[in-house]
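User: Can you help me understand a structure? I only have the sequence.
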Amino acid sequence: MITDILRIQSDGPKSARDYNLKNWYGVLKIGEENKLIRLGKNDAIRCIASTEEMFDIIDGAHQKIGHGGEKKTFREAQNKSANVTQEAGHLFLTFCEECHKKRARKLPKSLVVKPLVSTNLSPGGLNKFPDHA
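Assistant: Let's start by predicting it. Here is the structure, written out as tokens:
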């Protein structure tokens, strides 16, 4: 896709697809590397993350907000990269050990089962009830 954008920038758009690509995407050269960017309102620039970069972006956003949850992680990651999806964020959070420890359900103290102490037990462990015939 980067090669398509570079071709459109040099030769000009020739089809409807080319016009759409020109209006929505651009190429930003950082050092020797070309990065695909998503052009937004108010000249906001957000990079398009590759699949390999996606984990690092979501992890960084999740660490930055202090393991705050799925929606907060998604919003923070969207600020950095345009193509982060909620599904990718949800998948990441299912494997976050810190979040699982933090949100582990604990039983309230009132639900702890106490041992039954009774003197009516026979040596075999069964109660003997009189027959009510």
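Now, to help you interpret it: The mean pLDDT is 82. DSSP finds six helices and three strands in the chain. Let me know which part you'd like to focus on.
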